[in-house]
Design brief:
Length: about 400
């Protein structure tokens, strides 16, 4: 038996968790850490959020917390068996062990159980199916720890059964593969077969849920391998990707963009050939307005808007920003530079502040230009001069220039 005593594990024992543990102990209900947090702790990481599992039913938990005067946060989780308690400024999400009774590939009806193995059995991947006692004892019914150490991603039990319970698990398989597996191509053939046979099921999953997973895949490892696999296994068409995605461009961009912290949309756009590809993705996945605009921007400008030869390679990008009438053009240009793999220019761009035009209509009135129309024309001419100077001319220089004009 394995007992975990890492600093990351010890750090979980906040005053809040100690109080929660005490309450459960008093009532003889078992309480363990479940799922992803166990995986993270075993990998030596500090988990972002922690799910707890227990033998107590929601009703028993409510009774126990209420009589101890603990505040319950009314999340909608209760029908799935989740109670959220707040102690010492910290939320604790605790779910009763459960078995899926009926599943339709999207939602499950559950019944409660006190059998830990039965609960582990309905989880998706072996590395996500472990429990950790608060004493550090590991409960691992499906060899998840071994798989984690050898960096294998496997479904719990039969892949096809797990997938048919919730088709989104196909994408979760890819996401965790990109997070844990060491090298591309290390899949069990039977798993890939099961994914291919069930790919159609993704058509029934909401776009929002798919997009959450897809974004994580796009920022993980082996993204090029995994997206190619989506095409080979007939998944792409059901999740809004173009049938004839540009895999060569995707290959090129994913290689050069890895360390540049791109947005998911920037990576994905390399698959797209035309702006309809962005529109179709949006129809299927309901991406945000900002994401859609970024995709359209990149498809439109990735070929023409490139660095200048000569001493000022950034100038075309800077001019574009200065001429733009839109907000956040700066951020879009930075994503374009990432897309183009221009690491040095990106760093320069991130340090560049947009200069503000030093002359105002007020300055011109002082010089005796009175009609609005003339002021407008003069300002435009000065702006052009200023741009030609690389935005270096100051107010004095510009105004003396006006006299010449």
């Amino acid at each position: 038996a394995m007992k975990l005593q890492s600093p990351q594990f010890q750090a979980l024992f906040t005053p809040g968790l100690r109080s929660v543990a005490e309450l459960f102990e008093k009532k003889n209900y078992e309480l363990r850490i479940a799922g992803g947090a166990v995986r993270d702790l075993l990998s030596g990481m500090t988990p972002q959020d922690i799910d707890f599992a227990t033998t107590a039913t929601p009703a028993e938990m409510k009774e126990m917390f209420t009589s101890a005067g603990v505040r319950l946060i009314n999340n909608k989780g209760e029908k799935h068996g989740t109670i959220t308690a707040r102690l010492h400024e910290q939320n604790f999400e605790i779910t009763t062990l459960r078995i899926d009774v009926v599943t339709d590939g999207r939602h499950a009806e559950v019944e409660f159980t006190t059998d830990w193995e039965k609960d582990a059995e309905r989880r998706d991947l072996t590395v996500n199916s472990m429990f950790l006692g608060l004493d550090g004892m590991l409960y691992d019914f499906f060899n998840g720890y071994e798989d984690l150490k050898t960096k294998k991603i496997r479904f719990v039990g039969k892949a096809s059964e797990r997938i048919q319970e919730d088709y989104l698990r196909i994408l979760r398989y890819f996401r965790f593969y990109g997070r844990i597996a060491e090298k591309p191509g290390d899949h069990e053939p039977s798993t890939l077969q099961a994914i291919k046979e069930n790919a159609k099921g993704l058509a029934g999953i909401s776009g929002e849920r798919i997009w959450v997973e897809l974004k994580k895949i796009l920022l993980g490892n082996h993204v090029n391998h995994l997206v190619r696999l989506m095409y080979e296994l007939d998944i792409a068409q059901y999740i809004g990707l173009p049938l004839d995605g540009n895999l060569e461009e995707f290959d090129r961009v994913t290689k050069s963009i890895q360390n540049l912290c791109p947005k998911p949309m920037t990576v994905l756009t390399s698959l797209f050939k035309v702006k309809d590809d962005v529109t179709n993705l949006d129809l299927r996945l309901k991406i945000s307005k900002e994401e859609k605009n970024l995709g359209l921007f990149l498809v439109k400008h990735r070929q023409e808007l490139t660095k200048a030869t000569g001493p000022e390679p950034l100038r075309p990008y800077q001019d574009f920003i200065m001429d733009s009438r839109e907000a956040n053009t700066n951020a879009k240009i930075c994503e374009l530079l990432k897309y183009q793999g221009e690491e040095h220019l990106l760093r320069e761009m991130q340090q560049w502040t947009v200069p503000s035009f030093p002359v105002s209509g007020h300055d011109l009135r002082k010089l005796g230009v009175s009609s609005g129309k003339e002021i407008g024309t003069a300002l435009q001419q000065l702006r052009d001069e200023w741009k030609k100077s690389g935005y270096h001319m100051d107010k004095e220089e510009l105004l003396s220039c006006l006299k010449k004009l």
